[in-house]
Amino acid sequence: NQYVVPINPLGFSSLAYEIGVNLNYFGNFFKFDYIFHGNEYLSFGQPYLRQDIRGFKVFDRLRLLRNQVFLTFRFENLSDNTKKQRDYTTNFVTWEVSAMYSPLMNLPNLSLTYSQSTSDNGVPNADTLRALNVSVNKLSFDISYSFEYIFRNRVNFTFSLTGSDDRTILNSDFKNVNLLLSLYSDVRENIRGNFILAFNSSKFRRPIFDTANKFIGVRDEKFNYVSFGGGADYRLGKMRVWGNLAPSFGDLRRLYIYFGGSYEVARNQSLNFNCNLLFYNYVDVVAYLTYRISF
């Protein structure tokens, strides 16, 4: 049984390794990584690392005009089924290009990013249970600007457009538009206020199955909401407290309240408290108290 732990180390299913090369020359940073994570690999220190994956990653960033313009390219080609435990292998290919302008003078910072991710396991598209053949495209634009009016302020606007193309018989495509406007103000040296306004619109196709779990069609659905909120962050000596309130309207009707605080007990040591309150038709509370030691 390959799922029994501990396992035979000769099988390499719990083996993981990464090989990387970094080059930094003439305003250009280049990075190449090859990774292999076995299908039974588990990191106790980093449990979020992907299992059952192998492939390579390429990253290249070029700096121009006295580090005011950054051009970035990223490419990944990964696949699973490292021990051939299935009769099909899923390939994950992702590429991304971005440009960022960060002027030395008092002008807005601009960034534009386009990415595409594809996942294909080669299973015939008519197989409703196993087939995976989808492509996701995302375009995002971000602009931020710092200015002084009454207070020191920083405003940020983000626009993103995401869409998928599902080539299987399920045809479960989706489209999403997201707008986010945020404002941060230094009311005093130890008080920072914030305001956020967000709009989200999603259209997607939901597969429909009959009682025998047979695919019979798709249903178009929408999910739209508007959210806004504000809060503050206050520092006094070794103590810091913060709080935010953000109601949402539309298809997502809720009230989100977040507050907490921290106290520096000693150097590199702090006591922290966080509480999240979500008000739907019911109340969901997540609170935790931690003692942090930094080395």
From TrEMBL:
Q: What is this protein called?
A: TonB dependent receptor
